[in-house]
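Attaching the record inline, Q. Sequence:
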Amino acid sequence: MATVKALDLERLPEHARTELSDFYSFLVKKYGGSVKKKYSHRIPSDLEKQKSRFFEKVASHVVTIPSDYQFNRDELHER
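Structure, as predicted:
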């Protein structure tokens, strides 16, 4: 069996740690074995944080449309 080397994941940004955890889960599923519970507990909280950040960004880019605006699909493709 290969020697396990400890990695300092705290040096990575949070989104990179989440991505690494997801990739680790993928490798475990692909090559067998089971994911330890300590990894599966972190993923949902990270996803909740990412989801809240996403919707904060979306809310900051909200565009107000006049109430009498009529959407015309044909105009959408005109240049």
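The two ends are 62 Å apart (CA to CA). DSSP finds three helices and no strands in the chain.

More tomorrow.
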